[in-house]
């Protein structure tokens, strides 16, 4: 069954802002940071509800997170572009092969 999630309704129910959701994610850990050991989603939500932002958290938690500004920028000001090409063409195997196959295997590849 397909379910719809309204972010604004969820944020209101949780009592946090969009920026608070980003800070919550940073506390738990994302693809862009490791988070804080011992802080899961429930504890992160409680901390953001209590303190509002990472900068207001106790120093031991802030120190464990380190600099979060770059990770925040990924969410608040993502780098996007409309400069791309969607033309269909044969893959350039020589361009991507070294990234996915060990060099010894490539050396054995017939021409």
Structural commentary:
This protein has 111 residues and is mainly alpha-helical. Helix 2 crosses helix 3 and helix 2 packs across helix 5. 12% of the residues are buried. The mean pLDDT is 88.
Features:
single chain, 111 residues, mainly alpha, 7 helices, 52% helix, elongated
Order of helices and strands: HHHHHHH
Euclidean distance between termini CA atoms? 50 Å
Query: In terms of structural class, how would the helical and strand content be classed?
Result: mainly alpha
Q: What percent of residues are in strands?
A: under 5%
Uncertain segments? none
Query: How would a crystallographer describe the biggest sheet?
Result: none
Total beta strand runs: 0
Mean pLDDT level: 88
Tell me the Rg in angstroms.
Answer: 21 Å
User: How many separate helices?
Assistant: 7
What share of residues is helical? 40-55%
**Gross geometry:** elongated
């Amino acid at each position: 069954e397909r379910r719809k999630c309204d972010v604004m309704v969820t944020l209101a129910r949780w009592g946090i802002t969009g920026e608070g959701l980003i800070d919550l994610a940073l506390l738990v850990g994302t693809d862009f940071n490791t988070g804080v050991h011992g802080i899961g989603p429930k504890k992160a939500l409680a901390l953001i509800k209590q303190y509002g932002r990472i900068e207001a958290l106790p120093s031991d938690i802030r120190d464990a997170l380190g600099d979060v500004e770059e990770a925040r920028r990924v969410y608040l000001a993502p780098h996007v572009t409309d400069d791309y090409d969607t033309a269909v063409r044969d893959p350039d195997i020589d361009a991507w092969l070294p990234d996915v196959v060990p060099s010894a295997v490539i050396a054995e590849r017939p021409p």
